[in-house]
Structures are given as C-alpha cells and as structure tokens.
Amino acid sequence: MRLDLTALLDGSAAKQEWEYTYAPHDDGPQLGDEIRLTAPIAVRVTVGAHHGYLSLDAAAHAAYETDCARCLEPLSRTLDVSLSRLIETDAASGGVTHDADYEDSLLTMENGSVEIDDEVTEALLLELPMVHLCREDCPGLCPRCGKRLADGPCGCEGKKEIDPRLAILQKLLEKSE
Fold it and tell me: pTM here?
C-alpha cells in the first residue's frame, strides 16, 4: 500500500495511522513455496514527524500453513513482527551521505508517499523459523516404509535390509557359513 504522507510534510498533522491488509505481489519478496498464507497479511502503521525526518513504526500479523519438516503433518501457525524505519524527507536529505548500515533503515519517499509492503514482507521472511516442526521431539517418518512414527512402531525395526549394491557380498558370506 502506498502511504500518502502529504499531511505530515505540510505540517497539518504530526502523526498519521493506517490499518490495511495485503497479499505479497509476485514481483516482490516472497515467503517461500512451503508457506501458504491462510489470510491476507494485516498491517498497522504509524508515521510521525520528527525534526526533518518521518519515523515509521509498523506491526504485521500473518497466518499461514506449512508442513512439519520431519513427519509432513500440516501445521497452522501465526507470525507477528514489528519494524521501525526512518523516512528521509527532501528537506532532511540535503545531499547528506550515510553509512551503508544506516541506509538499510531508511525508506525513500516518492512524490510525498512511501510503499512499505515489500519491507513488511521482508521482515516476515526474516522472522520465519528455518524448520517447522509439529513438536520438538517429532520422530518423523520411517525411512523404509514411510509410516509416521508418532502413530506407533511400523514393524520395520526387526527387518535387516541390505543395500542392493552390496547384495553380492551377502552371497559370499552365506557360502562361507
């Protein structure tokens, strides 16, 4: 969503607030193929004017579904993130250069407005867990039969399986006995 900041820039308001929902667009940051949003991302934004800069504070809530990395059971999760950025106004920029680390926290304004959807999507992406598990001690799937081990033993434990590439050596062992 493009936030119109003209009321803050002309001094008629000291603070503005927005609430909206959106779905990430195809040409911006994506949450990944394994993440399926169950509802649009909800965002609350507050922008205030401070000494030539505008400060932006945003909070986002995303509800999504994914699969357990060990047993492939479907999971429903939510994620809440917050972010703070500075928006450099034309009056404050004045040809000032900033450190590269500082540049990451600045948003650029175009024609009195700023777009933050990509920033919010990126913050959500950075907060997603690397691995989603249904529970911390999930035993996963049996590597032989594929049965979900949380449902109980599969019966494959007693069976000794030989790698087919080494089966010829097993025949040699049987002949020597």
Answer: 0.75
